[in-house]
């Protein structure tokens, strides 16, 4: 049986953080999008929103930081509980966009939560590479993958993380066959990001789903890329809209077995008797005995 993962990517403008009523509106919006599709894939359908979709902050650096300080919540706070309830009522895998988390150490983190169709918080990834000096967040210090039962493993990378190839490579080593990249790019470098999305897919022979924020603040241009770096679906502009696709994760195995373009099998490169390649920059090494 093929391992299908239905994706509903929402390219939407950021929302100002507010009351529970604003989350009611968020739930209604998702339900409206889902109503256009017949049954058959629930509870496998995955709904993906852009970075900080529910926690937009504008103004001067001081104003942004003050607002974020005022809305930050721990992962056991009311916002997380409400989002889990939304996922359960709609019966979907919900990635609502990153949120402003108050860590147990008191610092702010740009955190991507993931909720199962049962409403469980199954993953929470703290962005490792905040875009400085704009973002006031502390960087996370661990990578995050989660399992969709019967389908496969999904990894998380937030916006600027995609510029650092170590993130996607580590997620792939952890078994991710799909990487979700939630972004809030408002600047003129989205064209370069699209290249990086494709490059990370090619380097690691994985699907990459990149959801970016819509106008008036964001530049949009969300896209879904296959394990050979080809666009499966894309938004050409910044207008609000949705992308839908059904990813067959067996394609990852096909590409890794036969190679990108039927040629390049990077996951079969190493042999057990190859020399160890030292990586002094990382105080680590590539040991073929662990990769072959």
List the helices and strands and how they pair.
Elements lengths: L3 E8 L8 H15 L11 E3 L12 H11 L6 H13 L2 E3 L3 E4 L5 E8 L5 E6 L18 E4 L3 E7 L6 H9 L4 E5 L7 H15 L2 E5 L11 E3 L5 E4 L6 E8 L1 H9 L18 E3 L4 E3 L1 H4 L1
Helix pairs in contact: 1-3, 4-5
Protein described:
With 292 residues, the protein is of the alpha/beta class. The protein has two domains: 4-261, Carbon-nitrogen hydrolase (Nitrilase/N-carbamoyl-D-aminoacid amidohydrolase), CATH 3.60.110.10; 263-292, no CATH class. Helices cover 26% and strands 25% of the residues. It has helices at 20-34, 61-71, 78-90, 165-173, 190-204, 250-258, 288-291; strands at 4-11, 46-48, 93-95, 99-102, 108-115, 121-126, 145-148, 152-158, 178-182, 207-211, 223-225, 231-234, 241-248, 277-279, 284-286. A six-stranded mixed sheet has the order 7-8-9-10-11-12, covered by helices on one side. It has a four-stranded mixed sheet with strand order 3-2-1-13. A three-stranded antiparallel sheet has the order 4-5-6. Strand 9 (178-182), helix 5 (190-204) and strand 10 form a beta-alpha-beta unit. Helix 1 packs parallel to helix 3 (78-90) and helix 4 packs parallel to helix 5. The longest helix has 15 residues, at 20-34. The mean pLDDT is 93.
State the main characteristics.
single chain; 292 residues; alpha/beta; Nitrilase/N-carbamoyl-D-aminoacid amidohydrolase; 2 domains; six-stranded mixed beta sheet; four-stranded mixed beta sheet; 7 helices; globular
- Give, in order, the helices and strands: EHEHHEEEEEEHEHEEEEHEEH
Under CATH at level 1, the class of the largest domain stands as: Alpha Beta
The CATH H-level homologous superfamily of the largest domain: Carbon-nitrogen hydrolase
Question: What global shape is seen?
Answer: globular
- What is the fold named in CATH at topology level of the largest domain? Nitrilase/N-carbamoyl-D-aminoacid amidohydrolase
Share of helix, binned? 25-40%
